[in-house]
Write a structure and sequence with these properties.
Number of helices: 10
Distance between the termini: 32 Å
Strand content: 15-25%
CATH topology: Rossmann fold
Number of strands: 11
Shape: globular
Helix content: 25-40%
Structural class: alpha/beta
CATH class: Alpha Beta
Order of helices and strands: EHEEEHEEHEEHEHEHHHEHH
Amino acid sequence: MHIVISGASGLIGTPLSASLRQAGHEVVTLVRRKPASPAEIQWDPEAHRLDPAALAGADAVINLSGAGIGDRPWTSSRIRELLSSRLRATGTLVEAMGKLENPPRTFISQSGADFYGDSGSAQLREDASPGSGILARICVEWEAAAHEAPAGVRVVTTRSGIVLSRSGGSMGRLLPLLRLGVGGPLGNGRQYWPWITLPDICAVFEFLARSDIHGPVNVCAPQEADVNSLIGALASALHRPAFFRVPAPALRLVMGKMANELLLSGKRMEPAVLEAAGFQWQHPSLTQAAAWVAAR
């Protein structure tokens, strides 16, 4: 397949591009800087600039673009940037598709588990209603922008859980603490966190590009876990204790509204569409995932 990826330099995009190329696919990445190779094409989503020819002949476009959710404090201007960066990138891709006589067959656009807001212990399949909160609103508008793709384009919106990696992302801050034996659960630890390993989320994107699935897809492992279980499994795999629980008031004091939505909210998400389609996880259990994360 010929696949175009935006946001290819991020936590998911970098290994995804590599794994797709290893699988024999032709991968072109959209970059904001001057292209360094024929496999790169320059674009400017802030200015809605993308030559439609960049998407011509593509079997699938994978959209991972968007400002980092937890990179900076959530000031009013930062919240606007989180939303606008996603809408501009998605809108730029959709507009370019609309100018092609034969647009790409598939558009896979990233969303997030935060679509469901803080849902407690309710079981969440893809037909569940959106929740409330800043991130839920961002995800709702982000998905709506993707569905503006031209008629005939198969649109998939991936509601991804926390990506377990060996470095970077949320694990980039947590793992060093756990390795030192000074990490621990966040808040009461009973909030559900949908999770998936980095190799598995890369495999999910290739699986979706090959499939005929459309609409929202919950991207997480089949084994659910709350924060206590997740932190405990990682600490055990690292052969370290995890006694240092961080109280919710302390998180709110340091992180403000970010703490409630990023760390203290829970989503008991089920990957119903992937399971029904027969997707096979490399790390379906928390024990397997933690062992992979802990390996060097």
